[in-house]
From TrEMBL:
Gene: pfkB
GO cellular component: cytosol
Protein's name according to its UniProt entry: 1-phosphofructokinase
Organism: Corallococcus coralloides (strain ATCC 25202 / DSM 2259 / NBRC 100086 / M2)
Taxonomic lineage: Bacteria, Pseudomonadati, Myxococcota, Myxococcia, Myxococcales
Molecular function as annotated in GO: 1-phosphofructokinase activity; ATP binding
Pfam families in alphabetical order: PfkB (PF00294)
């Protein structure tokens, strides 16, 4: 990935407050006691911006924020040096609740609805992106699509931004992903389930997933990365195909792990690293993030430690 303009912009249409509740022995239908609570600003693009901030390239966040929950996001942007070009809408950004039961090893997700985006706000976002494309060469379109926004939005934005010479990465699911891949972004990162929905057939093992990733790459998408959770990720590009497996790590929160992978891939590829190096570095970065709650980049020393422990497997052509 070679940029003609240095900056990276992340686009978050459905920002969120990520609320994590530590609840030992959580039981549905019973009275449960929470022993700890954490609230962090989130949404996939917001997370990617936080992970990329502090690097060699300027980072800008745009998209939509609910006016009632803006302070949490503004604090993050100020602390991480992220340029804030988000549009404010009346109301609150959605809340995603994770109930974590460490004794039972279970996590329960409760995702509340988000803002409804009026048509005029979508037009204002288009104008903002056009202006940002004047000085920024890479755009990350990620996360779910809120009410009032067509499922084809990421395809529309991909075509619009690529026509302006930008590199475009997409990380979403369902109908928005299906539309987006038809517009041929430069980089997509589905997980295994999202890829299965996209190709409309069961993917029962790593071989099936690799074949489906190759099919997606063959449509004209330069880089396909399939996240596999604790089993690492598959990477397919014109440079070949690799599977990266991280070592076992202590997990404080899985929220944002996929976004850390996206940020790691972009940082590595934009620095000119080959696919194997990119796969190793981004997998180590994502694994190291698991020890942190919220969009907090891991310590470079921890990433370096895990880098040596990532197992790399080249994938054949079958």
């Amino acid at each position: 990935m070679r940029l003609t303009k240095p900056g990276v912009v992340t686009v978050t249409l459905n920002a969120a407050i990520d609320q994590t509740l530590e609840c030992p022995g959580f039981t549905a239908g019973a009275v449960n006691r929470v022993v700890a609570e954490t609230r962090t600003p989130g949404g996939k693009g917001i997370n990617v911006a936080a992970f990329l901030a502090g690097g060699t390239r300027p980072v800008t966040a745009t998209g939509f924020l609910g006016e009632d929950t803006v302070p949490l996001f503004e604090t993050l942007f100020r602390e991480r040096g992220i340029q804030d070009r988000c549009l404010r809408l009346p109301g609150s950004s959605r809340v995603n609740i994770k109930v974590v039961d460490r004794t039972g090893g279970a996590v329960t997700d409760l995702n509340l609805p988000g803002l409804r985006v009026p048509e005029e706000a979508l037009g204002a976002l288009m104008a903002t992106l056009d202006a940002l494309a004047e000085e920024n060469g890479c755009f990350v379109l990620s996360g779910s699509v809120p009410a009032g926004v067509p499922a084809s939005i990421y395809a529309t934005l991909t075509e619009r931004l690529r026509a302006r010479g930008a590199v475009v990465a997409v990380d979403t699911s369902g109908a928005p992903l299906r539309h987006a891949v038809a517009a041929k972004p430069d980089f997509v990162k589905p997980n295994a389930h999202e890829l299965e929905e996209l190709v409309e057939r069961p993917l029962r093992n790593a071989g099936d997933i690799a074949r489906a990733a190759r099919e997606l790459h063959a449509t004209g998408i330069g880089l396909v990365v399939v996240s596999l959770g604790a089993d690492g990720a598959l990477f397919v590009s014109n440079d070949g195909a690799w599977r990266a497996l991280p070592p076992p790590v202590e997990v404080a929160s899985t929220v944002g792990a996929g976004d850390a992978l996206v940020a790691g891939v972009l940082a590595s590829r934009l620095e000119g690293h080959d696919l194997e190096t990119c796969a190793r570095r981004s997998t180590a970065f994502a694994a190291a993030k698991l020890a942190k709650v919220g969009p907090v980049p891991p310590a470079p020393e921890r990433v370096a430690e895990l880098l040596c422990a990532v197992r790399m497997h080249p994938l054949g052509t079958g």
